[in-house]
Every structure is written in structure tokens, then in C-alpha cells.
């Protein structure tokens, strides 16, 4: 805040002395910063717009007028990598007039336009450009829009330019054009500038049409220190040294593209050797100390790019693809066209890294490279279709991993990591459809959530299954071919998939007819199964916690098999349930009631299956006899469905818990991920209850054979599947108190800590478990020493150490840790702070502490991170998800009331967490005796 206020004061003095009319744009929380400058508001222009920061609900539209369409941005930017952290910009924006108008309206935020520099020209075809006087300039703070009112109208069909100069902020909020820093190997501070424009922050770097449906070309020039390299979406065309000694890099013109995928990066980073991939040059960039650890992504990307080019049948569109590892980064990565930026810890993979780190780096690369087609080449027309690009990139990320590492079982892992992960959230009445109306940047930020990403990807996987892999691929290729360099919505996609996959659809029914029942309503269905000697009878209803709703209906693809002829490779639906929930679907044919039946094979549909009690019993008996008759994803589906249905009372908990008993013989990680997801719910709710000892004893009874068959020590030569299973087994065995696991972890920690060096390495596969075990027994001096080691460690070790520091049993150290996480001079990066809150809240002793810290420091945290930072919602969830008291609901209601207008991206999350706490209370009232009695008898 100190630098922000100093910079504002400098600007105020300059602009008032020169009689500039200045438009200063702030988020609501920035009013505090303005207040630090006496009289600052007096320099703002009069406006009829609401600038109070109070936003009505529902939020009014903040969409741009449709009278103009951008054609080309000619943009020069000069960021200053020193206090007061500003940037200078010059813009010439060429537009076509779509409707006659007297106004030019552009998105703009956190910048000052120098009004004496604003000039407008207009011309028609074959005409000479003429000046158009600007008679008034206004700013609407709520809509984040600058308007130049003109003396003469711009006529439909004509062309026009607006040229201007401005000053902006090189901020520290990890959005727009922002600054980052790292310590070089000689321990000096090295500053850099990078960008994060998605979804609505390009307007912080330059005025423009900051909506995804507005595409144009960009001619970009960056001014930077002479020893730094400048990057943008396209290759550099030329570079020169200016009279002031700075370098000026001019880039080739981009194809037409949206503002949110424009990118700039200026640093002293180094690169790997450039690779030629057909007509594309490719490399990665990072700070020098970690460049050699970017080789995993560097080596994997060519195969992923080739897979996606062949899959889509369209070559990558740009002449180059750079990937940059940025020390401070808001998201894991960003798909900027031709310049993909990563959070450094997501790209830098150490030798011997954990299999989870390897998988995520490969998946993330597939996700971001897939965006070069879905999101960049073809762009959602508006943010209500966010899921269309994020769901596709997520699904294609898994397909890419499956292609380049087929032994990793990526599509089985999808079931637990994505589909089952999002279903509990989508079971809340406060959930939202994946296609949701949004009008304002605050609302847009809220929908960058699990629904858009994970449910979106799960629904696309369902379409992939029911139209067939070949038809799906053909439909995507046609969609991209016909709509490249333009915008699209879901109906464009459904039209192309219907044309390619019509043979698998019900008669007279299109993909659109089916999928609008999934995209335009929240939640998902349960398919209830009953049987007679002659038929299988299926009904559907919506699954919502705390509500039985039979009025909602979906088109549901049905796949099934029986004990008489088990076949799990079926993906084409054997039947369809129409979207009328009153209808009973009858599947005729003899099914012996003594034989099990399984539906929704390999969890290919986004729904749960509720069997009759006897059918659950038959499935359980098969699991006990020979569980590997069912594929891993099918076993995972049985476990997840049983436990979640029991939570809402659709089946008895004794049936659901009986399904877990076979796990003493389970070796595959995918069913274990499903089971441990369910166990984590019990673990969180009961961690301070007298039944916790019995709970741990039962879980340990199941986990011990799995852990003991795998062992503690990593074998780098083992398969990915074995290594990933070992990592999970070790984590849970030690957490549950397995004596052998704890002894080995303590021994490794003692050896490591005695070396007292950032260069000492614990194997990545078990590092967190070892560190957490040691930290739990450490005193203040050791804890503080570990924090110092963490802050000086390479990315992977740093991440594990920071997470493990939350394992301390000293509440006062946890409190100190939370304060350090949100202190600018602590050495903890901004993007690391939300994870620290989650880690503290994940410890039974730290849960109440983390929640109290978050709610009592909300405005400070929101100001520190930025009010539209989606991690505000993440922290609300991580701190309250396992509470089960009316007191917590009252505290959430109080937070909502006290922080009205300041919740930002946490607005929707408050409602979701109040509901989740109510679900937990209902669980205690309905199920505590049954669950604890069953566990006590089986512990």
C-alpha cells in the first residue's frame, strides 16, 4: 500500500498542476487507497454514473455498447520496474462503426488518460480522415468504462480511430500488467513484468474492447531495460536501442484475437534451445537457477502439440509457442496465444519428482495447449459460455496425457479427480448451471470454479462416450474448421456433434436437445434401479442435499451389464431415459435376481445410480469375492455413489460402509482415491469426537495391507501407477498412525534436518509426509528454521515445506503463520497465501483458528489479493467445509452482512458454505449413531 499511495500522490500533483482531466479507475476496495490522498477526488470529472462502489443485486449489466467493433490496436507500452511501479502507454485503436453513434466507449481500469492527448478521426471508404472534436469525457466506475463524447456522429459503415496516451499501474495484485520478483543466485532482487488478462483485466493495461467476442489484430511495441528480453504473442519483428538507452521491441501483427489472451512478459530469463515443430518454433523460459528443471515440460510439449494437431485436423495457428515460468502467478497457468505463462512451481519439475507432480505438469500442458484451439482460435462469445473453453481444455488435457502416457490410466483418474470431485458441490442448492448469465467482472470471477471446469469436462466426456470417439473427433474438427478466428456458443458445438454422431442418438433427438437439459440446470440426476424377473425398471430424480425434487428431468444415456455376461467396454448407450421424470424406463429381458447388475459403466454419465438394497448386497459380494472383475473406474463409482447416496438417505450407511470392506484387497489407486475422498469427509467431521479413535482404527485396518504391499521407499524404476499408489498409501498410513510408517518418516526427517541445508533432499514422493511428521513434533526454533529453509528452497521443495509447516501442533505458531502469509515482506508469495490458509484449516487444531483469521481480516485479505481473486472463495470453503454448528452459519451470515459490497469473488461461496454447514448438521442429526456404531463394530 505504501508504494500505491506514493504513486497516487505523484500523479495527483502532476495532473492538477497541468490542469489535466484525469480518469482514475478503482475497484471498490481501492477507495481506501484514494482516501490516503487528500483531495484526490476533486480531480475526478463529474459523472452521472454510480461510483459509490455499492452494487445492487442482481448486478446491472456492464457490457459494452455494440455500436463499434475493433479492427486493430497499435499499442506501445513502457513499464517501469522500480518505485512507484507505473507504466506508460500509447494507443491508436481503429474501429468499424456498426451503428451510428456519438460515443466511443472503452473498458478501462486503474489508469489515467491524459485528456489533451485524446484525438478521434473518422473516414468512409475512399475518404480522407477528418478530425472529430471530443466534447466530453466521462468514466463509469461500476461498469469500468471510459466514454469520449463526440461533437459529430460516427456514421454506420464508416471507420474511425481513437488515439491517446495514458499512465497505469504496474501492480502487485497478479492481474493486468503486474510486477514480480525473484532472488538471483547472487542474492540480489531481480524484477520482472508479466500479465494476467483473463478474464477482465486487459483493461488494466490498455483501454479497449475487453470482452471475448470482440476480436481484432494487435501491433505491439514494448519498451524495456536493455538487458531484458520482451515477449508477446507473436515473434519480435525488430528491436532497437532508444536515445535514453532503453530497448524497444516491435512484434509482428497478431491474427484477430480477443483481449484476454493478449500477453506481455519482460524479464532477464533464459531459455532452452529453440525446437522446430513443423512451422512452429518452441521453447521455454525461466529464471536461470531453475531452467534445467523445466526440461520435463520442454520435452513433453512437442508430443502433446502433435497429438492435438492431428486430433483436431488443424495446424497450430501461430509461428511460435513460448512457455514462461513466472515466480508470482495467480493461476496454475494461462493459455495466452503463443505465450503460455505458468506459475513457476507448476512448470519446474525436479528429478525424481512425485508422480502427482509429473501428472499435473503433463495434464496442465495439455490443458493450456488445447486452449490454443478451444478458447483462442474459437472463442466463447461471452463469459456465460466459460465452461465451453475450460471444460474442453480440461477434458482434452486428460486425453493428451492418455495419448502420450497410455500406461498412466488418465481417463480412469479423470473419474475421481474431476467427476467425483465436483459432484458434491453440484449437489448443493446454491450451485449454478454451467451456462450461467453474468453481467459484471465480479460475477465473471465467481464462475471460474469447479462447475465450469470439472462439471464442464465431465459433461463433454459423457458426450464423447455417447456419440462415440470417432464421431466426437470429427464433430470437433468441423466445429473448429468452420468457426476458426471467430466466436461461438454451445449450440454451434451441438450442431456439429449431431451431424457427426447422429447414429448413436435417440430417433429424432439432437445433441442439443439432450445437452440443454444438462447445461441449463444445476445439479444432476439419480437413476433409481428396481428389478423384476422380466425387466429392469429405471426412474430419475434430481440429487440435491436437503431436497427431494422429482420435477427436473434430463436425457440420460444408460449403459449396463450383468453377472450373466459382464462387459464393461460398452460406451454407446443401450437405452435413453427421456427428460420427463414421470416416465419409467423399462428394459425388458430376463435378469436373474440372484445376479448383480451394474449401470453407468465406468461412470461414463454424469449421474449416480441408486440400487435396491439387495442389488447393493450382490455387488458387495462380488467385490469381496473378486473385485477385479469390475474395472477400476467402476469400483470407484460403486464406492462414491454408495457413500454419497447414504449421506442424503437414499441408502443406509451400513450398506455403504459394507462396500468399503473389500478394500483390504484393493491395490489400484483409482478406487482408493474414491474411498479416501469419502473417508476424508468422516475424518473432518469426527476429528474432535470421541468416535475418532475407532474411525482411525477402521481406516488403518483397510490401508495397512495396501501400504505394506507397496512399502515406504520410492523406486524410481517402478511404474507410474505403482509410484502414485505408494505416495497416497504412505500419506494415509502415517496420518492414521501406522507405526512402521511413522518410524520411517521420523528417521528420514531426522537425517534431513541434521544436514541443515536447502540442498538436502527428501524423495519427492514422500517429502510432504516426512516433513509433516517432523514438523508436528518441532518446537519454535526448529519451525522458524524450516520456514527460512522453505523460502530459500527450489519450487518443489518450497511447496512441500510451506504446506508441512501447517502440521505444527502449536496454535500460536499457526496464528503467526497466517499473519506471515498475508504480509508483503515475509517472503511468502501472494499466490501461496491461500494454500497456507487451506493447510492450516486442514489440521484439526487449526480449523477454528483459520476461520477466525479469515473472517476478522476479510477486507485486509481482499485488498492484499484483489477483490476479484477467486481464491477468496477457495479460502471460504477450506476454512468452513467441516464445521457443523449453527454458530458457523451465523458467522457466515454476519460476514455477508458486514462485508456487503466487499465480498468480491467470495459472494457466491458464502451462500454455498452456509448450505454445506447445514448439510453437515443434518448428517450429525441423521447419521452419527449409525455410522459410529458400524465403525465401532468393525474397527
TrEMBL record:
Keywords: Aminopeptidase, Cell membrane, Disulfide bond, Glycoprotein, GPI-anchor, Hydrolase, Lipoprotein, Membrane, Metal-binding, Metalloprotease, Protease, Signal, Transmembrane, Transmembrane helix, Zinc. The record marks 453 as: Transition state stabilizer. Binds 1 zinc ion per subunit. Its EC number is 3.4.11.-. The keyword Lipoprotein applies. It is a lipid-anchor; GPI-anchor; Single-pass membrane protein. It comes from Hyalella azteca (Amphipod). SUPFAM superfamilies: Leukotriene A4 hydrolase N-terminal domain, Metalloproteases ('zincins'), catalytic domain. The gene is LOC108669279. It catalyses: Release of an N-terminal amino acid, Xaa-|-Yaa- from a peptide, amide or arylamide. Xaa is preferably Ala, but may be most amino acids including Pro (slow action). When a terminal hydrophobic residue is followed by a prolyl residue, the two may be released as an intact Xaa-Pro dipeptide. CDD domains: M1_APN-Q_like (cd09601). Residues 297-518 form the Peptidase M1 membrane alanine aminopeptidase domain. Zn(2+) binds at residues 367, 371, 390. Its cofactor is Zn(2+). Residues 596-918 form the ERAP1-like C-terminal domain. Residues 70-260 form the Aminopeptidase N-like N-terminal domain. It is found in: Cell membrane; Membrane. The active site is at residue 368. GO terms for biological process: peptide catabolic process; proteolysis. Transmembrane segments: none annotated. The keyword Transmembrane helix applies. It holds the Pfam family ERAP1_C. Belongs to the peptidase M1 family. The lineage of its organism: Eukaryota, Metazoa, Ecdysozoa, Arthropoda, Crustacea. This is Aminopeptidase. One of its GO terms (cellular component) is side of membrane. One of its GO terms (molecular function) is zinc ion binding.
